[in-house]
Design a protein that fits this description.
Two copies of one chain form a homodimer.
Chain A lengths: L4 E2 L11 H6 L4 E5 L2 E6 L3 H10 L2 E4 L5 E5 L3 H8 L12 E3 L2 E2 L5 E3 L2 E6 L2 E5 L5 H11 L5 E3 L3 E7 L3 H9 L11 E6 L2 E6 L8 E7 L4 H11 L6 E3 L5 H4 L35 H10 L3 E8 L11 E5 L2 E12 L4 E9 L8 E6 L2 E8 L5
Parallel strand pairs in A: 4-16
Antiparallel strand pairs in A: 2-3, 4-12, 5-10, 5-11, 6-9, 7-8, 9-10, 12-15, 13-14, 14-15, 17-20, 17-22, 18-19, 18-21, 19-20, 21-22
Amino acid sequence: MSAPSLSITRRIRRTPFTDRVEANGVKAYTVYNHMQLPTVFESVEADYRHLKDHVQVWDVSCERQVELRGPDAGKLIQMLTPRDLGNMVVGQCLYTPMVDETGGMLNDPVTLKLAEDKYWVSIADSDLLFWIKGLAYGLHYEVDVDEPDVSPLAIQGPKADELAARVFGDAVRDIRFFRYKVLPFEGRDLVVARSGYSKQGGFEIYVDGTDLGEPLWDALFAAGEDLQVRAGCPNGIERIEAGLLSYGSDMTRENTPHECGLGRFCQTQEAIGCVGRNALLRVAVEGPTRQVRSLAIDGDPLPGCSGIWFVYANGKRCGRVTSCAWSPDFETNVALGMIRMTHWDDGTRVEVETPDGMRTATIRENTFI
Amino acid sequence: MSAPSLSITRRIRRTPFTDRVEANGVKAYTVYNHMQLPTVFESVEADYRHLKDHVQVWDVSCERQVELRGPDAGKLIQMLTPRDLGNMVVGQCLYTPMVDETGGMLNDPVTLKLAEDKYWVSIADSDLLFWIKGLAYGLHYEVDVDEPDVSPLAIQGPKADELAARVFGDAVRDIRFFRYKVLPFEGRDLVVARSGYSKQGGFEIYVDGTDLGEPLWDALFAAGEDLQVRAGCPNGIERIEAGLLSYGSDMTRENTPHECGLGRFCQTQEAIGCVGRNALLRVAVEGPTRQVRSLAIDGDPLPGCSGIWFVYANGKRCGRVTSCAWSPDFETNVALGMIRMTHWDDGTRVEVETPDGMRTATIRENTFI
């Protein structure tokens, strides 16, 4: 079946870069935080090859920011995540699972500390703004919570350092992983972080003001012609190879961070005050009974996973696959899924119920890349 | 430009009816509450004609429910809306604008009272679950807030009473507007409400359990063959003619209920305790300075409105159009927009900056249907 069309209304928000994305021949979108997120330019396979070999510019405006500002911003940000933020410094980005009172994942954002009383939470696909506003109101915290006009633009791929340096100067080369620097562009200060939703390396530029979007896009394309810079997007193959989870697909409110392999980001045994601490303390002691794993599914290329594919061993269910793609580099179907502890060891052989019938598969302790 | 494709992953959730929707030839979707919502079957124009003449079955599972249950459910539901719920009875559905502390719209759901300590909030396109959970946690209310496995299926069109009666019995004919009855289907109790996102009349059935989805769909199609029942969806033309607002398109967190023409649902001058009361009290006294209006835009059929079209009078901006469609019945472009008080009177002539150039238009006090 061919892919259905997406009907676009104002509710499916355009971004500061949408005109450029369209001019670069976007073929498909998904919707992410009520916003258009490109998924295909040339083809998923061609985009993948190019991402691994060259450098791409990605419109990831849909990574909306929730801004916390005010005297209680620090208290509130710690309330939101089981990760201990006590030593977080200005200039740092931290991956911060956020959970509800039962320890269920609400989002897995990156938090940026901009000042002692100012944070940005760069969110995955759920209206985390509503959760944070609700908490702040209910708890009578003295803090403003809002969505600023900030739209991230990512530079990803092995030539990302070179391209970023040509536009922002050599200072970008010294930015450490998950740190940011504030660098000037057209006389304005922009947060430039070494981060991004791929394993190919690169930066995310927090474009602070819609009016800067097209000038920055154009500057990157002008500077990168000989680097073969192209418009790209988070790649459905590469992110599965890299084990980068997608909130809503590979994890939902049903899952604890520990199930998502994010236990190392939960310092609930320290005396931090956060929502869900009691629930997660229990999980931390007992350990999860299922956890995210990579899988290699045998046989011909499978279609993408639009729902849940159950996983079996000896005829009994032992998990579910939630993302899948054919990998040209590994010449197998790469997948992510939630697997029960009885079958999550490296090398375990299982069967996956795909739209193409039962397929044998192998559980992997590690990601592909 | 042809419509782009929609890439579907698990994050864009299927519904209990998606298999049937696909079998009925859905051509396009939008994404609503992280879920697939059909937008076109035959064509928007053909679907419109059929909706006004016959009866359609709509997969509106994306109207997710937020369930409030527990001793403080009643206190919490009143905290959420400026509408006075003091006299609300079990069996009633109420349109309930919900706002943040500044009076900005967070959602415009329909609230159903199922018991003194149990409510469903049937939501528009934002994660209202997060707001309600955050408030309940912060306020230490004794209430469980969750998303149950409930997926509304709508029956809409002039023959809706006849079709619903054939499946649920003649009791449905006596259901008053915005009331519901609990009626049996295959031995299970379902909430059947006289409501829906059209002006053609009909019902919304709150399908409580995914397993009931296909049996109910099939029962409606089997019973309605001679009524020419068809798969349909909220129609982009009819809903604009009817002045039915779309959250995210025609109103956002920027707008107060008063700006959205929902002032009559705000009893902030009564002694109700709700979030945003202070902000809305001020608006109630001073009145809004802009408000939603219907417009007729002259000339040939325009494309749909994917962003904002500014409205001018004498060369000065006086509003914005946020939804537009060509109406076969009114033989004009019907539109909705937010218009400043200086130009919102019935019959005012304005100009709209469309992708097709400047067009003259007329402001209407009333909706088209």
